[in-house]
Please model this.
Amino acid sequence: MGKKNRRIAAVGAHPDDIEFMCSGTLKLLRDAEFEIHIGVLANGDCGSMDEGQEEITKIRRQEALSAAALLDAEFYPMGEQDLRIEFDERTRMLVTEYIRMVNPLVVFTHPHEDYMNDHEYASKLVRHACFAAPIPNYQTYSVSPQPRTEQIPYLYYWGPLVGRDIYGEFTDQKIYVNIDSTIDFKKGILACHKTQRDWLMERHNMDQYTETMRETAVEYGKWCGFNHAEGFKQHLGNAYPQDNILKEILGDLVKEMR
Model:
């Protein structure tokens, strides 16, 4: 794979997770001529107080496609159901197949600890898939199995929703990306998910969720000296790449906090 690989994969549990948490960084990478791939585990079929599962799935699929188009990104829905994502053998294989299909240099996903289990299981599934994808004897039993990747990709976890853990404490993400130049783009791409404004108001008391996104970016910026930032932690476990490829690609737009 090597550094010549210019493919980036972001994997979210639901439509709009990626846009909310890392689309500013994805836009910077797209502007640097990297190829963006968007993988979404679940349909978003529980994301409505009014529409049935089948109808809201169709609506949210179209919203996700519209958002991906703004990044000129490939969109890949994995077809799981909301609140039913599991860390089981079938789903581990499903996500591994996706990583093998894209063969990315860099992968972004949820943190291991977040406010709901779908996000946490998605994080563990992606971690497993990144590690398993290069292993020749890890077979996925797919009808058309993808070839193994050459190596484990760089793996980054974005911060939790509104930057706070399950106890309400702000979490320092260690790596911050300056998104001053892409904050308006991020607002626009998040607005593609029109159904979620009503849902978040009803369930999370979050009105104007694009403003909540901006407030989160400002809060992260305070920790690193940028006006607006997205925060990440890099997976540095055994066998994973140890250098910070984001810093290499984006230069001074990336600040590492020690």
Q: What stands out?
A: The CA atoms of residues 93 and 139 lie 8 Å apart.
